[in-house]
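[Q] Does anyone have a clean structure-token version of this?
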Amino acid sequence: MIYLLDTNVVTELTTRPRPAPAVVAWARSAPSPALHLSVITIADIEAGVAATPDAVRRSAFQQALDGIRHEYRGRITPVGEKEALAYLTLHKHLKTTGTTIDSPDALIAATALANNWTLVSRNTTHLARTGVLLLNP
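[A] Here you go.
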């Protein structure tokens, strides 16, 4: 089984002073090769780093991002054609049901859907309407 980690799970594990014990325990129990990221997660984190006004915190967040890129090298999934088509299908479905979610979240969900992966997120209520298989550690 392949798990696609949502941005909130990655930041929980890498930047929180006291991450949730359940999230840490789950991440430790999963085999590293099964843990993947979306390139959208990297962009989300990069945006957060850039928006941090305090230079000391920004530097710490940049170091965390550099560590994430190193740790997940070879397991950062781009948005290719099949992911883009899954995003389009998801967007149409949400529009017909009168709901939406932010584009980054929809792209991450579409990546999991396109690859038949489980999306690991703390935000399951928000993402449940996408139809993606979800796990909240």
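[Q] Thanks! Anything notable?
[A] The longest strand covers residues 35-38.
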